[in-house]
Amino acid sequence: MNKPETLVAEIEALGETLARAREMVARRIIGQDDVVELTLSALLAGGHALLIGLPGLGKTRLVDTLGTVMGLDAGRIQFTPDLMPADIIGSEVLEEGKDGSRAFRFLPGPIFCQLLLADEINRASPRTQSALLQAMQEHEVTVAGEAHRLDAPFHVLATQNPLEQEGTYPLPEAQLDRFLLQIDVNYPDRAAERDILMATTGADEAQAEPVFTGPELIAAQALLRRMPVGEAVVEMILDLVRACRPDDETARDFVRDAVAWGPGPRAAQALMLLVRARALLDGRLAPGPGDVRALARPVLIHRMALGYAARARGDSLAGLIDRVVGGLAPAREAAA
């Protein structure tokens, strides 16, 4: 077991490398600091992220830039209504040898990469979307009864158009739960949009350079799991997740009245990993209650659903999560 001072030195060194990575991403992604931080946190935590926003807000550009900066073999799938599962995971073909013998050979699909951009994932049918489930959870795919391992590390960064747009399908709940967090990509403010205009319409455009390699990212993910988390933060995570379940004894009346189903244990696991990642990106040696508050909405919002009456009233999950966090944070912060 490493000595505490060795762990501190490793965490500090990783923090410096992450600072360079953020600086490199910022060359091409302007005015989306929160989005960049959350996406990097998902990669550090070893998970997948769902980016939701209107077309043209730089989601695809962000994923492409992260592939370069993190040194990952990037792949891309454009989801369309006619996309089939075999178009994602691959298929077997029957080949005939020179001696007349016949044998099946597996042709890998585009999912066999390290960083997969699932572009406009909700434009494909639920059957096709579900083809990602095994890959996202187990990092392998099964074709004709045979399992095929994916490269490590393996991350899915999926973009999704708002469900109000035509030609979209809601993602299955089981698949949503596989995403570590949901990241809302909004319009940039006026100053940031001006910077975007100047940076992207000239003769030269800033290019990103690699900072990590695949093995270095795997090592960073292992180091993150060794990062200490205080007891007050652990209890705050448990309080938060359980308070968002309508059938839990700790749930408040407004949660019982509005929520149809709440987050499962994966939400607590995601928070435990992501609070560490956020602390690392901020140059701190351990997470605090503020990290839990900041990550509550991205981690929980896609793992909950409002009941019919709450939707009819116009309630929002974001507002409900904020109310739960507001009731929990002060006590736990005092304990920390």
Which characteristics define this entry?
15% strand; two-stranded antiparallel ribbon; ChlI/MoxR_AAA_lid; 336 residues; Helicase, Ruva Protein, domain 3; 2 domains; Rossmann fold; 15 helices; P-loop_NTPase; 5-stranded parallel beta sheet; 11 strands; ATPase_AAA-3; alpha/beta
What's a quick, concise take on this entry?
By secondary structure, this protein is of the alpha/beta class.
Task: Give an overview in words.
This protein is α/β, with parallel strands linked by helices. It folds into two domains: 219 residues, Rossmann fold; 108 residues, Helicase, Ruva Protein, domain 3 (Orthogonal Bundle). Helix content is 48%, strand content 15%. The strands form four sheets. Strands 2-5-8-1-9 form a five-stranded parallel sheet. It is globular and about 75 Å long.
Protein topology:
Blueprint: H1 4-26, H2 33-44, E1 49-52, H3 59-69, E2 74-78, H4 86-89, E3 90-96, E4 102-108, E5 115-119, H5 126-129, H6 133-138, E6 140-143, E7 146-149, E8 155-160, H7 173-176, E9 181-184, H8 190-200, H9 214-225, H10 231-243, H11 253-258, E10 259-261, H12 265-281, H13 289-300, E11 305-306, H14 308-313, H15 317-335
Parallel strand pairs: 1-8, 1-9, 2-5, 5-8
Antiparallel strand pairs: 3-4, 6-7, 10-11
Helix pairs in contact: 2-12, 10-12, 10-13, 10-15, 12-13, 13-15
